[in-house]
Predict the structure.
Amino acid sequence: MAQFQIECVESKTELNQSQYSKFILEPLDRGQGVTIGNSLRRVLLSNLEGTCITAVRVAGLIREEKIGAKAGEAKTSIKSGAVNHEFATLVGVRQDVLELLLNMKEVKLKSYTSQPQIGRLNVIGPAEVTTADFELPSEVEVVDPNQYVATVAEGGKLEMEFRIERGKGYRSVDKFREHGLAMDMLQIDAVFMPVIQVNYTTEDVRIDGAVEKDRLILEIWTNGSLTPQEALSESAKILVDLLNPLKDISLESFQPEYTEDEDPSNQIPIEELNLSVRAYNCLKRAQINSVSDLMGYTQEDLLEIKNFGLKSAEEVIEALEKRLGIKLAHNKSVNV
């Protein structure tokens, strides 16, 4: 079993709660630094679970413009309700709906359940809206309560309801609406990855001044929903679980085994009988692919194959006798 030391030589947390840590793993056998570093990097970036907002319902005072009867004439109307497309604008809100969706896409959350959850926001201006204003279920918490969402002016109103999910990797907006999702819920691309970036490098080290080994330097940045130490531990567990079944792999031969009553020549494909094109095609259409398949037929059975005439049957019988010494029974009541 490989033995090496793991040391965290640097760790820090940014103002937006994202985290960074630098790890050193040593000593490793030559070449193992790249093997472990690359494997961990791929798992860290694609296989860890994270939480994000996947759909948003936005409501408030909606400004609509309608083209009048005269060319270039536009009429503006205001109504209250939920928007039905991302290009709408809300009265009293600095951001349009598209900007709001982009800001919600960047919100960092942490969920303690695998079930989808619903969060809400209800703000009346003037106010600068942050994630601290979210109304969240007990199973979900905000990573950075100071994360900016929108600015609402005096007299303005912003209402949102959003769907929170856990998942892996990246999921783009589906062309077809998810079953059970309300029509006024606007879907957004889901970025579940809790790990933002991973770098690894290897260095040569000497043990006792003679033996050359590898030193692996691993740097991990996360969005704050989990620490780099937790991310490293989870990714290592995924790799161990993935490779563990290979520890007990059996070395049994996978070559086909024949009983005493079976002849290996029966496994010969019909291509080796050098039949005419007509006879070959008829056999293939009847799902006869090898000599063993032919052994289940009598001479009378061959004549019952579709488009298989007497001449083709005689050709097959002759090829079996001359090449393999096999003679088909005339009918089912006769054993040869």
About this structure: The mean pLDDT is 84. The chain is about 20% helix and 35% strand. The CA atoms of residues 51 and 166 lie 4 Å apart.
